[in-house]
Amino acid sequence: MIRSALSYPSKKNLVLQCLRRMSSLVSTSVSEVHPGVAHVTMHSPPVNSLSLSFCQELSQNLQVIHKDKSIDIILLQSDIPGIFSAGLDIKEFTQPKERLMEFWTAFQQLYIDLYGASQTTIACMEGSAPAAGCMLALSCDYRVMTSNTKAKIGLNESLLGIAAPPWLAQQMMDTVGSRVAELSLWRGTLYAPEQALAIGLVDELHENPRERALELAVAEFQKIPRQARAASKTLTRQKRLKHFHQERQADLEHFVNFITQDAVQTQLRGYLQQLAAKKNKK
Ligand SMILES: CCCCCCCCCCCC/C=C/CC(=O)SCCNC(=O)CCNC(=O)[C@H](O)C(C)(C)COP(=O)(O)OP(=O)(O)OC[C@H]1O[C@@H](n2cnc3c(N)ncnc32)[C@H](O)[C@@H]1OP(=O)(O)O
């Protein structure tokens, strides 16, 4: 089931290609909302956690959009109320080694496809974005977050008994500075919107992030020549991406070695139980 139709005027081949790809996919949809502006909408209830298939699907959609020269701005959003993305699907961490490798490879690819997108990307966060949910936002060029104080954003991995991968920690440092990142990484701080704005983790708060993101895209960002935006991105991101490609295999090995440790597995199972207990209390 496809949640909403793709519409790229005068791009019939691409539409067909997309539809073919998406026929077995259910967790994201793509739609052109204004000439040159595409919404990529995440919909994987209950919390848009990034499972193997969700990472792969999001990547595939981004790759299709990358090839579409008529699209120059991507708005990444969720249609689950109160949630942007809950980060990586923790259940994936308890899978056998082969699956873990496939999972992490798909997550790495998603980072490449989003952080490395030549288009201008805006994260429209109407809800919480912990851990890899925060990675999705950090990979975008601009972040608009809801002003609703229930929403939280940050890298809380340490509270799960794990650590963010080096490249995600680096994204945090690049965005908020080394000292703030250092503190927030080991504390696992999840920031309320006003705090996130104060440290520069998000760029704007708005009661309607989607509306604001579209307004920014059309009234501001599209006025800057597309090639200039893309070249500026290359200036600031190329070095990080090159390094990431060099370290990709080592990063995969680090992940598998780390996550399969008995102590880490015990901690993760405990964390999942905490989440379930919290839900039962509601
Ligand atoms: C040289 C360097 C050396 C170091 C190398 C180290 C390398 C190691 C690398 C390891 C890296 C690991 C990276 C991890 C990144 C991550 O993304 S980890 C995931 C972190 N995410 C979270 O902690 C979020 C947890 N969830 C929540 O806080 C809340 O669910 C929410 C705020 C998102 C939403 O709250 P609410 O709306 O109240 O929903 P809930 O009732 O809590 O949940 C509903 C439902 O969803 C399940 N769920 C929630 N989050 C996840 C998740 N991330 N994965 C899987 N499932 C999740 C929750 O259990 C409920 O499930 P049931 O309905 O009960 O089945």
TrEMBL record:
The keyword Lipid metabolism is annotated on this UniProt entry: yes
Taxonomy, superkingdom: Eukaryota
Cellular localization per UniProt: Mitochondrion matrix
Pathway linked to the protein: Lipid metabolism; fatty acid beta-oxidation
Organism: Fistulifera solaris
Pfam families: ECH_1
Function summary: Key enzyme of fatty acid beta-oxidation. Able to isomerize both 3-cis (3Z) and 3-trans (3E) double bonds into the 2-trans (2E) form in a range of enoyl-CoA species, with a preference for (3Z)-enoyl-CoAs over (3E)-enoyl-CoAs. The catalytic efficiency of this enzyme is not affected by the fatty acyl chain length.
GO biological-process terms attached to the record: fatty acid beta-oxidation
PANTHER family recorded: ENOYL-COA DELTA ISOMERASE 1, MITOCHONDRIAL (PTHR11941:SF45), ENOYL-COA HYDRATASE-RELATED (PTHR11941)
Subunit structure, as described in the record: Homotrimer.
Protein known as: Enoyl-CoA delta isomerase 1, mitochondrial
Annotated Gene Ontology cellular component terms: mitochondrial matrix
GO molecular function, one term: delta(3)-delta(2)-enoyl-CoA isomerase activity
Recorded catalytic activity of this chain's protein: (3Z)-decenoyl-CoA = (2E)-decenoyl-CoA; (3Z)-octenoyl-CoA = (2E)-octenoyl-CoA; (3Z)-dodecenoyl-CoA = (2E)-dodecenoyl-CoA; (2E)-tetradecenoyl-CoA = (3Z)-tetradecenoyl-CoA
Assigned keywords, A-Z: Acetylation, Fatty acid metabolism, Isomerase, Lipid metabolism, Mitochondrion, Transit peptide
Major subcellular site: mitochondrion
SUPFAM superfamilies: ClpP/crotonase
InterPro entries tied to this protein: ClpP/crotonase-like_dom_sf (IPR029045), Enoyl-CoA_hyd/isom_CS (IPR018376), Enoyl-CoA_hydra/iso (IPR001753)
Family listed: Belongs to the enoyl-CoA hydratase/isomerase family.
